[in-house]
Amino acid sequence: MPRLHLEFHKSDRIGWLRAAVLGANDGTISTASLVVGVAAAGASQGTLLLTGVAGLVAGAMSMAAGEYVSVMSQSDTENADLARERGELESQPEHELDELTEIYASRGLDAALARQVAVQMTAHNALEAHARDELGITETLRARPVQASLASAASFALGASVPIITVLLAPGGWAASITTAASLLTLLVLGGLAAAAGGASVTKGAVRVAFWGALAMAASAAVGQLFGATL
């Protein structure tokens, strides 16, 4: 009995990984920047906590809605293409068979073998063959709006919880500094984990994410000091 050869590829994770990493990074950066900016304006610790919680709720809902609408648009396009392909398979099957044959021939098969493969793939599942080889739509990379929406909202809330927790635990007057340090450490970890999961350089991934986080918090602190000094 032949043994099955199982392979696991990084691309299998791309759908949920992209949404989760984007949500967690955005949650940490945006909420920490809000807290640091308001702290630089001289706000109390209670105000900082309220700012962080409000940023978490608003951001998580915004991420969920934005991700859902974005991925749903992709899903609608895929479904429209599949519906059109389904109709063409019913109305002009010979033309679709020729089309599939040409696709396989363009990939290096000789004409006779390309035709044989096209016939067998059509007999097995014509729509799946055309979706994959003509439209580039596969089950692994199909748009999943609800999954992407929930992953974005949950990961945003998880990332945003870091600056909120630091505000709660930080001694008076140290909230901004501790929030900045904890958030940068979190971003380093998130960037490294995302890079490792995707098969990329851990160091580059960690530094890239932390750099943009530091830039965002620095800009927010500058705005907070500017407006705090004029109020």
Order of helices and strands: HHHHHHH
Residues in helix, %: over 70%
Number of helices: 7
Tally of individual domains:
1
* Number of beta strands: 0
Alpha carbon gyration radius: 25 Å
Distance between the termini: 79 Å
Shape, principal axes of CA atoms? elongated
How confident is the prediction overall: mean pLDDT?
84
Largest sheet: none
Which stretches of 5+ consecutive residues score pLDDT under 50? Answer: 4-9
How large is the share of residues in beta strands? under 5%
Structural class: mainly alpha
Structural descriptors:
single chain, 231 residues, mainly alpha
What is the element layout, followed by pairings?
Layout: H1 14-40, H2 45-91, H3 93-106, H4 111-133, H5 145-169, H6 175-198, H7 202-230
Helix pairs in contact: 1-2, 1-5, 1-6, 1-7, 2-3, 2-4, 2-5, 3-4, 5-6, 6-7
What does this structure look like?
It is a single chain. This protein is mainly alpha-helical. It has one domain (12-230). The chain has seven helices and no strands. It has helices at 14-40, 45-91, 93-106, 111-133, 145-169, 175-198, 202-230. Helix 1 (14-40) runs antiparallel to helix 2 (45-91) and helix 1 runs parallel beside helix 5 (145-169). The radius of gyration is 25 Å and the shape is elongated. The model is unreliable at 4-9 (pLDDT under 50).
